[in-house]
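Section: Multi-chain targets

For targets with more than one molecule, the full set of components is provided together so that the structure can be written out for the assembly as a whole rather than chain by chain. Components appear in the order listed by the source. The example entry contains two components.
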Amino acid sequence: MDNYVELKNVTFRRDGRLIFDDISLQIPKGKITSILGPSGTGKTTLLGLITGQLSPEFGDVMVDGLSVPNLSRQALFELRKKLSLLFQSGALFTDMSVFENVAFALREHTNLPEHMIRDLVLLRLENVGLRGAGQLMPSQLSGGMARRVALARSIILDPELIMYDEPFTGQDPVSKGVLVTLIRSLNADLSLTSVLVSHDVEEALSISDQVYVLSHGQVIASGTPQQLRDSEDKELKQFLFGLPDGPVSFHFPAKPLVEEVLV
Amino acid sequence: MKPSKIMIHHYLLNAVRRMGINALDVCAGFGRASWFLVQSLTWGKGFKAPFSRLVFQVYQQGVLSLPIILVAGLFVGMVLALQGYHILVGYGSQEAVGQMVALSILREFGPVVSALLFAGRAGSALTAEIGLMKTTEQLSAMEIMGVDPLKRIMAPRLWGGIICLPLLNLMFCVLGIYGGALVAVDMLGIYEGSYWANMQGSVEFYDDIVKGVIKSLVFALVVTWIAIFHGWNAHPTSQGISTATTATVVQASLAILALDFVLTAVMLGGF
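Its structure, encoded as tokens over all components, is:
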């Protein structure tokens, strides 16, 4: 299978804390790959390694055949024109309208005439159902609308790889359903490679071709959604089905309650 | 218990180690800031879009700083004239008050006070703005879209500051000299002809005006550099932005005062 992204034996530390311990994974071209795992396992950090905002201590990160940690600053910015990331917060430019946010990359990277920029922006806004909201400012949008504007902005240059960082967090059921449909249809219509980082298990499994589950700096499981559902691994089952008891403790390590409170 | 020789030895070694780590941190920080400055001094391709961003920064940093600069200049000039008159009148040289006001403002008060006010008004605003952009991931979003924030965000702000402060300094000086005239001529009754003629006879274009503008240019580069670097380097939290903004004002103010001494000494040939 042809891979768009490959992590090879990556070790990464932040402030001395080991986030990834010699992990390897492959993201195939044209598919939706989900990276799942409990909060704090470094899922967003993984996206930082793919985009070159972070560098691994050991190992290599290959994107479209290029070794990201070894790219020059200029080459890295060139590569990023083919990538796109939907931030958890949306990260819209607060001093620009919705229209200008979506038009931003077009204005920066192309010399298209204004009427063509207008048409392209309106088409992308139509994709996310917000063609009528072009003149609104980001402060006037709800959380779900902001996420959809950010999605329109992230696909304006027809990227080859799109990464979604916790796209379903804080969304109401309607927005969640709309986002699931959008991610699926964009991947099919634009022939994208998609990486979905999430801890919303059901939504992620419903649209993924391949899933990796991270925990304690390691890949604890990988495969198709069905393979993961059928797995007997206790840690995986606890995470997938949200069980309170299992190998992953709910409590942060501490002294026994009796000792701490009553003595 | 008396500390043993080994304990003292360990304590001293630790102290030396800490000093070494701190020194390395300072060097690394200075290296990062220098790299940041070099990257921010140039901007990307094209002329039209960067020029419009520069004009916007001149408005943000320069035009919006005008009220505080003009009012401060007026009052500094008025106070200088008042103090100068009361000192000079003891020697019967009160006619020289115009010369004193002009030289003090052009050589020192103009460049230094306008830079201090610029650091407080525009510098802190730059740090807060960039820090907030970092906190809300706008700078990261730009990077991911293949747009270098150092060229897109930092460069116009840096050049905006370099253009604005020398102009603000000149306006400060004009208002300061006018404020001095208001007090000396209109309030204290000094003959208007001597106020302006003494000034005209003693102020040298290169030694007083150009050297003041050169000081102002250096202050502009340093203040804007400190401001945008602290914004870029801020911890992405509300307290991080607050700390970065305070650091900008404190470090920029101290840098202005220290550099003023160095530049004055060099210009007067003291070294």
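The first helix of chain A runs from residue 43 to 50.
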